[in-house]
Specification:
Elements (H helix, E strand, L loop, with lengths): L2 E2 L5 E5 L2 E9 L6 E12 L2 E5 L7 H17 L4 H4 L1
Antiparallel strand pairs: 1-3, 2-3, 3-4, 4-5
């Protein structure tokens, strides 16, 4: 990959689960999106982030994935943008 954005281009939050959508710009080829998931939780007075999920998080994870899939479909990078 030639470049990777330092910040996601879109965030989706469902409960404590967050889906971050990243735009990837390879040196050759078309621009495309990737997706990462995280969840936030509070330990004492401090907020933490995790990338693991328990069974109780799966509904929110699934909903975030569906919402991200729809966003990515609606915002497909055009081939002209990659040139």
């Amino acid at each position: 990959m030639a470049t990777t954005n330092k910040k996601p281009i879109h965030k989706i939050k469902v409960g404590s689960v967050q889906a971050d959508i990243w735009e990837q710009t390879p040196e050759k080829g078309d621009v495309f999106y990737t997706l990462t998931f995280s969840r936030s939780y509070k330990k004492g007075d401090e907020w933490k982030t995790s990338h693991s999920f328990t069974q109780q998080h799966l509904d929110n994870l699934a909903d975030a994935a569906i919402d991200a899939k729809e966003w990515m479909r609606q915002h497909r990078p055009s081939k002209a943008k990659a040139a």
